[in-house]
Please model this.
Amino acid sequence: MTIATVARRAGVSRQTVSNVINTPDVVRAETRERVREAIEELGYRVNQAARQMRTGRSRLIAVRIEPARDGINGSVLDRFLHGLTDAAGLAGYRVMLYTADGDADEIATYDELLNAYDLDAFVLTSTHHGDPRTSWLAARDVPFVTFGRPWGAPDTHSWVDIDNAAGTAAATEHLLAAGHRRIGFLGWPAGSGVGDARREGWHRALGPWGSSFEATDSVESGAAGALSLLRAEEPPTALVCASDSLALGALQAARELGRDCAVIGFDDTAVAQAIGLTSVSQPLAEAAARCMGLLAELLDGRAPSFPTTVLLPPSLVVRQTA
Amino acid sequence: MTIATVARRAGVSRQTVSNVINTPDVVRAETRERVREAIEELGYRVNQAARQMRTGRSRLIAVRIEPARDGINGSVLDRFLHGLTDAAGLAGYRVMLYTADGDADEIATYDELLNAYDLDAFVLTSTHHGDPRTSWLAARDVPFVTFGRPWGAPDTHSWVDIDNAAGTAAATEHLLAAGHRRIGFLGWPAGSGVGDARREGWHRALGPWGSSFEATDSVESGAAGALSLLRAEEPPTALVCASDSLALGALQAARELGRDCAVIGFDDTAVAQAIGLTSVSQPLAEAAARCMGLLAELLDGRAPSFPTTVLLPPSLVVRQTA
Model:
């Protein structure tokens, strides 16, 4: 079975069949449909090796997998990875995994991977201030996109991110609408792009009179932080939290004090679903699909000459705790 | 920097350096140490492409990633994947992901992947009765191991599995020791290897007088199943569940009825940790490392001529609910 067979059946040229497979956007919808029907009728399976020879590409992209974490927030990047593998599969790409311990190790791993495998591109996650990875790849003309904006740096590459500030702003507005006025924030130490954005959204929606507490991202320090806030003279009646882990700690603290306190988490993890925690949900599958879309544009030479940036709005999932 | 430089520094032959990198077991510990020190001092990075040319191998293994699920039990295979990527990295391999919708689609994907990429081996998960994937790979001499035994079929390939029955037996014995006598089981419909094994462990530890209920794996059907068991004339005072999702449903049902009922889940997910659910924990990182170890043996030609089977014991994590 070859592309020629499909072309004959669909009554189009071989180039058109190739376009439908590799750059469907350039083919008219009606023609595309006819070619896809022919592909289906004939049971044609795109031969990757043959395609690679034609296009000079491996259709292999690499992404880092994080060490297994406590399981509450660690699931966020797992969900992104599921979405990326799905989107890559639909676009005819495969995903290769690697692990790395810090930026320097990750850059050394790029070097090793690029020497060893015929990789097309990288998807970078967990961007942060002073991130050296993107300039390393850019200097070597290696195509990549990042899930996460280049914090504190200009947009010199394409990226997809979630509007974290919009998420906590929506959470805070939900609490204001329910009549809360003293709304606290339980967040991470300053300096992390994501954490600062989540704090900023709360601050923007509430104004300058809220109290906040900085904690490392665990249930225990969430509980300790919430205890400290709730024991203040004018304690908050509601808490917006930078993660579901912190929110879970806040719920424990409120229960321990016998206090009614509305709590909203962030990430809409399985734990939030299980315990009825109101939480901000990130559109991770969409973020992954957009990353893949930007990469495909880059690899097909269809990308505009300036970087594309995609900021996706999160949504508030209202359950029992607020 | 080449292998020759390392060999000169360590005062050994090039072959010995190559052995330390590719088949360390065949080198004496003392020599191995000296070569490793030389590698470290010289900052030598094994060049994968060069190694591939020497060994004729890509050092690339493929594993399926499941569609994202409800997040409670879906995390089990994610944890296995993290462990596999870690173990593969240590052994000098990389992991490639693919998705598949059913056995036939997975087999078609093997065909495509083997045509397109120079893959060394597959790791198969979610083995089941009448699984056609293993014989397809075996017929084509493609190296593979399975995480999960060949249910209802002879051991014709190497596998690693968790002793599911031992897990529910331990849970049941824990409840018996606490004085419970009427211990119910909330499990999946008969026919799934894993589900049947979990039921069997409970049955073995308790004897023939327990009541059980079959439910699909969700919080809602767990709650419905538990309600039905708890409304019986002589209701159980404790429930062993085939998953944390079912256990969460059981807890909801007991609360709804205002009934005290001990509950034990399976998988020790983040949800179990968050709500204090006693649960059976699978040694997933170890299972992944053992899979990688068996594969490395196969690929290095060090495997015995008969299949190796590894059955790992799970452990009970006791929290508040039992």
Observations:
- The domain at 164-281 of chain B is CATH 3.40.50.2300 (Rossmann fold).
- Residues 75-90 of chain B form the longest helix (16 residues).
- The two ends of chain B are 59 Å apart (CA to CA).
- Chain B has a mean pLDDT of 89.
